[in-house]
């Protein structure tokens, strides 16, 4: 794996992956993706907050104004009521990023005069040291932890765990069906100059990758490709261990297994994001572009149940936000309000969050 210009990626990360492949042979795409995104020194997210937002590679819902966080706050108020309004309510957010959601949720609760505001203990969990530093500056009243540090906290947490665009960044194995055989698409040094290339190798029977493919009927026809996320089950166990009583809210991109196995996704769902544009050059810009694959909702519900959760509902973002009042502040506006630039901006932001061709 050689470094050629900006497209090759972080030199230290590329050299480390190349050395690993020379010593041990081809690596799974899951191993490549884990290093590219989450290496603690040179991975994509280790670079911290500059990767997100207008100057980064992609937007999150919290980049589109404060409305998303306001709706999450309203949902947390309902959860608080269901739980009997305990003295302390935990909101534990995994993959907390720059702390925008935390700031918006806490500000919305205070603005609403919610009794939850004084009882909320907000815990922001993120693997990136750079992200954690930004959260501490953005939301000094929150607890900011690395994932391993959460285990050191007190037990008896009651409240809600939030995973917002967390699961689509988990590493995935790539598979392809060819002549009736299931092959794994691995990463090797496949060219004379040592550049990375994809190679196929047969998936051993009764191994975890094959088990997940067959369980969900993925890549059913010759030529079909699919992603398998073996990290999903352990991640859900981690989310479950963070709370003793309460709810889990997952907000992410995904489909159920039947749709992922359908003709619309014969190439799978893997995409790279760089400069707010998608591409399929997955082995380029290593550590300098985002990699993401849609969540298998069928697998999510299965593994969440195994981790101790009970699925209570699934919906689209537009319906979730509308049910939690995103449009209410516009319903009583008069003509002057409708012409006010800030009000117009707010309506446009809400539209982006709920429109089917936006983030809805």
Describe this structure in words.
The chain is of the alpha/beta class and 360 residues long. Helix content is 37%, strand content 20%. The chain has 15 helices and 15 strands. Strand 7 (181-189) and strand 8 form a beta hairpin.
Topology of helices and strands:
Elements: H1 11-24, E1 27-28, H2 29-38, H3 67-82, E2 89-94, H4 100-111, H5 116-119, E3 120-125, H6 129-138, E4 143-145, H7 147-150, E5 158-164, E6 173-178, E7 181-189, E8 196-202, H8 208-216, E9 225-228, H9 232-241, E10 245-251, E11 254-255, H10 257-260, E12 271-274, E13 277-279, E14 290-292, E15 295-296, H11 297-306, H12 317-323, H13 328-331, H14 335-339, H15 341-354
Parallel strand pairs: 2-3, 2-5, 3-4, 5-10, 11-15
Antiparallel strand pairs: 1-7, 6-7, 6-9, 7-8, 12-13, 12-14
């Amino acid at each position: 794996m050689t470094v050629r210009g900006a497209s090759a990626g972080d030199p230290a990360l590329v050299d480390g992956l190349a050395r690993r492949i020379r010593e041990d042979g081809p690596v799974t795409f899951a191993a490549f993706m884990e290093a590219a995104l989450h290496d603690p020194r040179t991975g994509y997210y280790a670079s911290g907050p500059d990767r997100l937002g207008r100057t980064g590679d992609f937007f999150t819902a919290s980049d589109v104004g404060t409305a998303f966080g306001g709706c999450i706050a309203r949902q947390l108020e309902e959860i608080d009521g269901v739980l009997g309004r305990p003295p302390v309510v935990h909101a534990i957010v995994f993959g907390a990023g720059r702390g925008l959601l935390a700031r918006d949720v806490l500000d919305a609760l205070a603005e609403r005069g919610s009794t939850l505001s004084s009882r909320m203990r907000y815990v922001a969990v993120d693997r990136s040291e750079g992200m954690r530093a930004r959260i501490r500056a953005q939301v000094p009243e929150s607890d900011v932890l690395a994932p391993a540090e959460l285990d050191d906290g007190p037990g008896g947490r009651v409240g809600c765990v939030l995973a917002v665009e967390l699961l689509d960044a988990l590493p995935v194995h790539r598979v392809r069906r060819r002549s009736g055989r299931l092959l794994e698409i691995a990463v090797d040094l496949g060219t004379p100059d040592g550049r990375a290339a994809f190679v196929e190798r047969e998936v051993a029977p009764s191994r975890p990758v094959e088990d997940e493919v067959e369980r969900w009927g993925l890549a059913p026809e010759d030529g079909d490709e699919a992603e398998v996320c073996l990290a999903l089950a352990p991640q859900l166990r981690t989310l479950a261990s963070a709370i003793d009583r309460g709810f889990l809210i997952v907000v992410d991109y995904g489909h159920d297994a039947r749709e992922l196995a359908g003709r619309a996704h014969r190439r799978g769902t893997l995409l790279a994001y760089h400069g707010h544009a998608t591409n399929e050059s997955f082995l380029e810009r290593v550590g300098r572009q985002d990699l993401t694959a849609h969540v298998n909702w069928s697998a999510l519900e299965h593994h969440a149940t195994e981790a101790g959760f009970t699925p209570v509902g699934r919906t689209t973002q537009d319906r979730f936000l509308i049910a939690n009042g995103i449009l209410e502040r516009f319903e009583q506006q008069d003509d002057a309000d409708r012409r006010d630039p800030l009000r117009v901006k707010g309506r446009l932001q809400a539209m982006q969050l709920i429109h089917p061709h936006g983030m809805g």
